[in-house]
Design a protein that fits this description.
The structure is a homodimer. The first copy, chain A, is an alpha/beta fold. Chain A has a single domain, classed as Dihydrofolate Reductase, subunit A. Chain A is built from 5 helices and 11 strands, in the order ββααβαββαβαβββββ. In chain A, the strands form 2 sheets. Chain A has an 8-stranded mixed sheet with strand order 5-4-3-6-1-7-11-10.
Amino acid sequence: MGKVVYDISMSLDGFVAAANVRPEAGLGDGGERLHEWAFNSDDPRNRQFLEVVGTTGAVIVGRTTYDLSIPYWGADGPTGSARIPTVVVSHSVPGDIPGGSVYIFADSIESAFEKAKQAAGDKDIGVAGANTAQQLITLGFIDEILVHVVPVMFGSGVRFFEQPDGEHVSLETIEVIETKEIIHLRFRVIK
Amino acid sequence: MGKVVYDISMSLDGFVAAANVRPEAGLGDGGERLHEWAFNSDDPRNRQFLEVVGTTGAVIVGRTTYDLSIPYWGADGPTGSARIPTVVVSHSVPGDIPGGSVYIFADSIESAFEKAKQAAGDKDIGVAGANTAQQLITLGFIDEILVHVVPVMFGSGVRFFEQPDGEHVSLETIEVIETKEIIHLRFRVIK
């Protein structure tokens, strides 16, 4: 297995989606601001972060992310034509999974992690979904956190990390890249 | 008047103090981690951010910050021997203000801002205290936000920016400095 990397765009004040997340607005009201850098920048220092397909062997996503994204992902999953195996953490398996899809369902976070390790082989595992990532961080399963800080403050929404009674998580800064649109921060999780 | 600058140390997940803030632990349980960089680093790229006294003409602080800090600040206020005028936003004036102190009391955020402008002359105004800063940001009174991102995640505590029903605040990145201990991010508030 390679590294387990949580890669997420975040507002400066720590939100990974704006308020009122719903099927028609998966990132909340105005939350698409978080992903603009990925669609609207030709800067190679930004583009490099979008080209992770070659090094990623599996992705773990939460059920909420799956439900919000399936209309866009279809059978191919979050990585499109690369069709990387995508493990969905869910207590139940939906009845309408697209035929020939990349999805693997797991009923616990630990089981999802095991299935992702098998699918990834020597490659990295990606993680999507705030709640799923928080559980993986708490279990010590995340090696790196790659945060794309968007110069905006939301004031409310879905929080990057929320853990009322947990231990603090120490990080080591390993990369900082400033571009016009966004600031990329990469950290190693100190376990 | 110069610029109005909100200068704050923050965990990666958006907290400016850890959980359980109280008089004996003004930054909450383990929250002193946020200020370690200021005390333990000889890096000149860190030191420069501590030497703002020459350019700052007044400081605005909230009453909670005042109450938590007065045992340490005494009559001289947050800038020590520089004795920069410090405007405290408070509905009431405490009975035990130290004699010959730098404190000016104001019963509203608008009044505090006016008093700070008068005191600052041509110099900058600094801001301390999450709640006070949030009100000043919402009113459009803050020109720059200088965030020192500490490589740690708290999961709970006092939030950098919390505003359930407000507009998003757009920023422009103007400076990014990576050091071993901390990442300094300076933004201009787009009004």
